[in-house]
Amino acid sequence: MRSAGRKSVNVDKPGGRTMFKRAWGKKGSRAEGTPARRAFSALRRSHGALLFLFAELLAFAAAQSALARITPTTLGRNLEPIVLKGSAVPELSGVAIDSLHAYVYRADSSKWVPIPFQIDETVDGDYFTPDDGLLDSNDEIVLYSADFGDRVPDGIWLDDPLARRNYRVEIEARDPLSPDSSAAGWAYIFVCPPDSANQGVRPYFTVDTATDRVISRYFGVGHNSNGLMVNGWITHEGGGNNFDIIDRQKQRVKGNYKYGFITYNYKVTENNVEKEGIDWVVGPVRVIRHVRAKIVYSVLEEDMNLTEYYYPRAIYVGGEDTIDPDLGVYHLRQSLDLNANATGMRFYNPYNPKNDETPIIIDTKRDDVDPTIVVPGKNWTMVTGNPGTILTLMDIPDVGTRRKLYYRDYPSGTSDGTDDTGDGKSYGDIGVYISGDNIVGPASFHSWTYFLPANRQRSLGDTLLSYWENPLIITTTPQRVDSVGPARVSDLIASAEPEGAVRLTWTAPGDDGNVGTAERYDIRYSLDPPPMDSYLAKATAPRGDYDMDSWFRDARSIADTTRPAPAGTREIRIYGGFSVGKRYYFALRTYDDADHVSPISNVASIIPVPVELASFAAHVLGDSVVLTWATASETRNVGFGVERAQGDRKPFEEIGFVHGAGTTAETHEYTFADHPPAPGTYRYRLRQVDTDGSVHYSSVLRVTVAPTDFQLLTAFPTPFNAQTRVRFRTLTPGRVQLRIFDTAGRLVWQMEQHVAEPGYHDFVWAGRNSAGQLLPSGVYFVRFLSPSGTTAITKVVLVR
User: Can you point out the beta strands (E) in 134-245?
Assistant: First the structure.
């Protein structure tokens, strides 16, 4: 084991992944042996608003944009280990384990923070044989969900040269029980110099191997000379009072074993275990304790191996075996007996107490307890009080004919006819009792024992059981540092539109140079010419102490929230509100999601003519065309007929009508989404209709719709109140992404990287943001990213 990071897997979910290896047998492998040991072992384990803003305001927004793209953690499940195989992070295969470190990002302090983390090397399932110190596919990476933090774009990177030269792996833990699985947290594994991140990282565990004590920040346990638990407490930091409340862990196995003509009757307890040695894996997040022992009863002497996994708040034990009919097992019991310090604590399980107003108090007095348990299936028991809480989850196999809860709270004796052990008293001795004439078949047993704060509610048992049945969804994503900004725009053209409008056109750069899709544009204009009137190609053209950067900074910004199109796309934007007869100079810069900025574009100039529309733009998103326009004011405006023509020669035809605002001095924005019948070139214009029937036509926009591998079909109902259903179709398999934006361009909800097969698919949106909060009434845009990377958009209207 060496400190580093790991990817988590689901826990005991049918058809899913398994978090833990088999825990029985020699060094974690399956054990063989005689009846007593085998039975004993099996039991034990709006729209683009176009307004003119001051340059200072846009500069402030740009400074905040990186933080705005950070997704805060909303993961509320903070008790679960995250365990992944090395095969989940193939990009880090072969890296020295001591060079791998786990970090989380804390947006409140804008800092990367190292977290406890380890990698346990395995050789053919054996944790205890030395390996090569390199990350292999079968090694295990261990983190803890309570440490997960915020999500950051790839431009926010650990400030370390080695980390920036290598992959990092983003580990996402998402709660399937949250609305739309929206609750999530993130951690990141970086390649860094050995021990560069270890200083100041507080481990969860301290282990005293000499006295066989395992102490977490939150609980501690001690063991006797046999290697079995005889002490347990919840620390002050863990929410308890640090009092030892455990007498011991108890086991009972009885049977009649036939060997030839001889029948051996055996009665095994934990006192029949003789420890031979313990193998340890001690890390900051997980401790693996492997006990090598013998079970000695009369003439019987058999090997026994037991493996326990300690996590910050819990101990996991699990194993699988088959009880042979010849073993003659007729009695099995496993329980955890408390001591006098537990007096006054309360006992709960799904069936007890029968009356919530009459709690079952641990006081060595008989109680009326319902012995019902679910077999086969998962069960829970809990004791809670001032010393803390011990909550046990158990997956009980379908063996035996009589299965029940074992509970005894009495000064002496047992409830199953066996001799008592330990202090000879039963302070809430709680567990499982199985009996039958001949117990045979699979005897797998899995349990989690949690050590939690004092005085918990009964509902906690159901909550943790639901977590076990619905494990966190873990996704790993390899990432490279974003060190390349968008390319410079060098073909910006300004042209005059009717009545004072200006059309700007240019070729969209990408996120990295001319590849991908950038994050946003910073488009500015000025009445003052740039430092060099012939400025066309250079990023900086000094004129004394006044250069292009100063000119651009002093220019006024155009608040256009429309996202850039993919690299290589011809961008068309029309802006209004300019004074007629004056010359304006335009330039732009492009930002990516890491806030890398391109050099200033070439400068384009134009003298506007009068205008009615403040803006009119067309954008191709997948097989859709989205038209956006805005008016600075309206007079007797009935509305806008949206007209489309295919190619250069076919006539225009109306494809929709958008009602206007009548007479108003306020700015209004409009959006219309069109789904052309086939790929090709299309022309669009607006036919504005007055109340007297007169019409006015806008300028014509030309767009090209390329063939696509998907189709965003419809949203129904819209407008909607409770929820709307969006349907899409894909022609090729792969990962798709759905995101929902408000009219200001802010991301309000997302479904990341869903794997879709070819065909029709539906998803439902309930009008909530990623934090599960209700959103206000308004227009929202659903953007779909196909497996090939192309996009489509549709509009929905939420009405509260």
Answer: 140-144, 168-174, 184-191, 205-208, 213-216, 219-223, 229-234
The Cα 353–Cα 346 span in angstroms is 10
Structure tokens at 304: 């026994």
CA-CA distances (angstroms) from residue 787 to 92, 172, 518, 584, 729? 25, 21, 18, 42, 11
**CA distance linking residue 384 with residue 407, whole number of Å:** 15
Residue 510: DSSP 8-state: -
27 within 8 A of 305, measured Cβ to Cβ = yes
pLDDT of residue 403 exceeding 90, the answer is yes
Q: Facing residues of 246 across strands?
A: 338
Q: pLDDT tens digits, residue range 447-460?
A: 999 999 999 999 99
Q: How many CB atoms lie within 10 A of CB 580?
A: 12
Of the candidate ranges 59-73, 172-186, 406-420, the one whose mean pLDDT is the lowest: 59-73
Q: What is the set of domains in the chain, with CATH numbers?
A: 205-456 (2.70.98), 709-800 (2.60.40.4070)
CA distances from 165 to 158, 162, 480, 482 (A): 11, 5, 8, 11
CB proximity list for 690: less than 8 A, separation 6 or greater: 635, 636, 637, 638, 696
State pLDDT tens for residues 419-438. Answer: 899 999 999 999 999 999 88
- Contact between residue 24 and residue 305 where contact means Cβ atoms under 8 Å apart: yes
Burial of residue 186 (number of CB atoms within 10 Å: 0-12, 13-18, 19+): buried
Burial status of residue 678 (CB atoms within 10 A of its CB: 0-12, 13-18, 19 or more): exposed
Q: How many CB atoms lie within 10 A of CB 778?
A: 15
C-alpha 58/C-alpha 71 separation (Å) is 22
